[in-house]
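Hi V.,

Quick status before I head out on leave. The structure for the redesign project is tokenized and pasted below; the design run finished overnight.
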């Protein structure tokens, strides 16, 4: 997808970052995937319901130099079915196919709406509606510890994107986000603690990048030149998360880093920062649970 650079050429910051991420994941996987005695898998309730509250601090959009903090309630839903799964961290998956080494499920994501009147870079431009992303993900199980508490996966999600203000809906292209994911349950031997690391890159088509980063000629100003965002590489992401499950409540937090250096839209005047961070913390109380117990194969 690009020009091959001779090994003697200086490496870009994106290549150095990519190598560091790969080395960090390899070291983490090597330290976590120490074979121990196999254990019988624990049975858990088929479903759990509750209520929670989350605080999230994030940029208006990837590349923005302005931020927003939300404090919002959310339903706590856990479901451990064979075909449909929802976990404590809010991830929902529908399994279409699964074997010992690979599975096909669906992947979902999205972005929050942005009022251009509240963002200096977008002043005078149309607002950004919320986007919703949904599509299939082909996942490869690269490594499993013998007790199945530590996992290393390669995930290849492709998602279609729609933008909506709940009155009108428009296509906003598609995005491909391959990533490597490490999950550790009962981290460092402490029951109930879960630790996760994910590193990946983002690719979007022209329509997707245009939605966030293009500036039409009639919207150009003295400080904001016109820009036609192309499709292609959209930067790298790195996420780490830590959570703890107690008998009647759950608490967790995460930090996400976005790196936009080398992205196809890097020169857009709407990109004010080439590194962004997002952080969140949530706590939820379990109010009801199923009397039916199942083996949690995750």
């Amino acid at each position: 997808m690009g020009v091959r650079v001779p090994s003697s050429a200086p490496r870009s910051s994106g290549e150095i970052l990519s190598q560091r991420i790969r080395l960090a994941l390899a070291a983490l996987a090597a330290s976590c995937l120490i074979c121990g005695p196999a254990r019988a898998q624990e049975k858990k309730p088929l479903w759990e319901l509750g209520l929670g509250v989350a605080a999230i601090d994030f940029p208006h959009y990837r590349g923005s130099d302005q931020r927003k903090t939300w404090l919002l309630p959310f339903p706590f839903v856990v479901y451990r079915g064979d075909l449909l799964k929802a976990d404590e961290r809010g991830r929902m998956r529908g399994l279409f196919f699964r074997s010992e080494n690979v599975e096909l499920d669906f992947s979902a994501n999205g972005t929050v709406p942005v009022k251009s009147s509240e963002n200096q870079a977008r002043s005078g431009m149309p607002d950004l509606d919320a986007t919703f992303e949904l599509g299939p993900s082909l996942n490869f199980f690269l490594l499993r510890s013998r007790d199945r508490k530590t996992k290393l996966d390669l995930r290849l999600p492709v998602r279609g994107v729609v933008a909506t203000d709940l009155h009108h809906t428009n296509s906003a292209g598609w995005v491909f986000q391959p990533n490597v994911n490490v999950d550790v349950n009962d981290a460092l031997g402490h029951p109930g603690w879960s630790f996760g690391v994910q590193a990946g890159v983002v690719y979007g088509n022209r329509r997707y990048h245009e939605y966030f980063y293009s500036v039409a000629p009639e919207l150009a100003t003295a400080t904001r030149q016109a820009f036609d965002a192309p499709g292609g590489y959209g930067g790298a992401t790195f996420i780490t998360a830590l959570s703890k499950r107690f008998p009647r409540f759950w608490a967790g937090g995460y930090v996400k880093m976005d790196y936009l250096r080398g992205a196809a839209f890097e020169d857009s005047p709407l990109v004010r920062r080439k590194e962004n961070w997002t952080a969140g913390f949530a706590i939820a109380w379990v109010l009801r649970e199923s009397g039916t117990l199942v083996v949690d194969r995750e």
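Above is the designed sequence. The mean pLDDT is 87.

G. will cover questions while I'm gone.

Best,
W.
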